[in-house]
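Field reference: "sequence" (input) and "structure" (output). Example, histidine kinase:
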Amino acid sequence: MELEALFNVGLDVMMLISPDFEILRINPAGCKIVGKKEEDFIGKICYEVMHGMDQPIDGCPCRKIKLGEAGVGEISQGGMYFIATASPIINDNNEITGFAHTIKNITERKNAEIEVKKIDELKSVLLKSITHELKTPLSVIKGFTDLLINNHGSKLDMGMKNIVLEISNGCNRLEKLVGSILEASRLKSAKIQLELTKTNLASLIREVTKGLEGFARTRNLEVEIDISDELIVIIDVERIIDVIGNLFTNAIKYTPPNGKIKIQSEIKEEEIVISVKDTGIGFTEAQKEIVFKEFGKIKRNGQGLDVTSNGFGLGLYISKKIIEMHGGRIWMESEGLNNGSAFFFSLPFKKIK
């Protein structure tokens, strides 16, 4: 009775279909949506009445079930979009005696997704154009400030020298931001070819962390590295260096003085998992939702820290794209504010003999 009531009050198209695609029943809402009477459907072949075709369309969920696939498909017809689902009706002999078939109009949602995609593409083009336009004047400013410092620094009084140094530092920060935006744009458009080489990941991790030891010492942080020496992988070295450097730098930046950072490796059957764990300020649930998103810049505070990054929130987004291009995964865990965080990434791995 409940199924019968649902069939009669359902707002989407609902049909009972025979194994030969004959329409056995259709609900009142289905007739209204399609604009036909019940007698126009009963006993007719579904794909002929619904799609004007002489055979099941590619997205037909009933056809998919008969082929051993999942009974769900997206259908585009007449400028409209639909999600079609089907569930097999099985008898006591485990035979398919029909299908419960529903069709839901998702045109509004699909059009919104298309519009968002267009806006996203426009944003990427605009950002790429702006950053390219910035590169030339930025290079000129940086070139002249470097010239002043290197060739005429002795002639400048301390106040003027500090101003020129501040301009130079600002140029360096802006240059880094421009580079990040261009890199994110290239990764997003999939126009990058990885330069893959066989590499010892353990050596790479130690090299990157050694280069950031000075930064860690400024906060009196304890850094523990517990990784296997047998981490031979095939990767784009420069891009994986960027990922490791980004995760380690973030751990240092957001861990209060006298805290601890631990880098570990775990060798699984077909992947290596690297983790960077800290005793830092952690993440809220809301922050965890956006941390890997493009321009996912967040203000983080806790344990006496109040930190806003100078970047655009692109570092972890770029890291995610790089790891995914390698066929790996990247994710994070945090128990909340003041409870630290752990970032993980995996890379495909097979023991190389």
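Residues 81 and 108 are 8 Å apart (CA to CA).
The longest strand covers residues 80-90.
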